[in-house]
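Please, structure for the following, as tokens.
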Amino acid sequence: MVVDGKPHVRPCVSIPTYGNEANKCIASIGDVYSPLTTPLPLAGAPMLARTRGNESHIAATLRAEAPWMDAVIGRLADQATLQLRAGLPWLSFRPLLLVGPAGAGKTHLARRIGELSGCSSAILSLAGASSNAELAGSPRGFRHPQPNFAAMAMLRTGIANPVIVVDEVEKAASGDLGDPVATLLGLLDRSTSSRYFDGCLAAEIDLSHVNWILTANRIDRLPEALLSRVEVVEVLGPGPAHAEMIVASLWRDIARDFGLPPSALPRVEAAAQTALLRLFRNTRSLRRLRRAIETLVAVSGRHVPRTLN
């Protein structure tokens, strides 16, 4: 449907109120999650527009920030082209599985896709998970019923096509309380996710517009059923030649996390900058570099004179 000239979708037709009406939590479900029964926008149109180089804005921006991620960015560029040709101007891509070493920047890239597109992102780590509760939600009858993770992301962002990042999917394990990977199978398949029954809402909800990005360090532990539902892309991470670009990018990210412009962070001396570059070139780990920058900012901030009002 079109609302104010922009594409929207109504995820859930209605949320029934039946159940244990004596339980205030269950009785209020319809009110708490009522936004899911209203039209939500399908975001991403501005970033799908073509640049002078005849590439989508999102692909061009990501390529400038992370040229070593060319394989992933190429997939997004192809999907953007298909979306526009089909007259569907919003971010939509086949589920991706990014495979590569820890600290290669897989999650960082996924978050940037959500930020740049305007779809926002939600991250769920399956490392050590032996229950599907967080992914599938908790149905009515439980003490604290809650919709599935994708529905909660839609509720939080107010967007029908958020980017959901499932980290370290190969480290999940099946337990007595459910199998997270088995739950993913139904969510990744658009033919089933378009009418996904949610136990908390006690109704079907359309999750087919959600964009999924899974990450893993290896795929030999993953079932074929999952691999057949995703596009596997190998991520090697940035090389030593990208060190200065990586430091600058993480600096901007940390400032953004604090709601500040990069210029508002404490200035770093040349020796400290050199140490950061050396750290990355020696370890090739974005994770370790980010921690080092955060520590440096915190230490430098202690010596910045405070302004008294």
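Confidence is low (pLDDT under 50) at residues 305-309. The beta strands are 2-3, 6-9, 40-41, 96-99, 121-125, 163-167, 196-198, 203-205, 211-216, 231-234.
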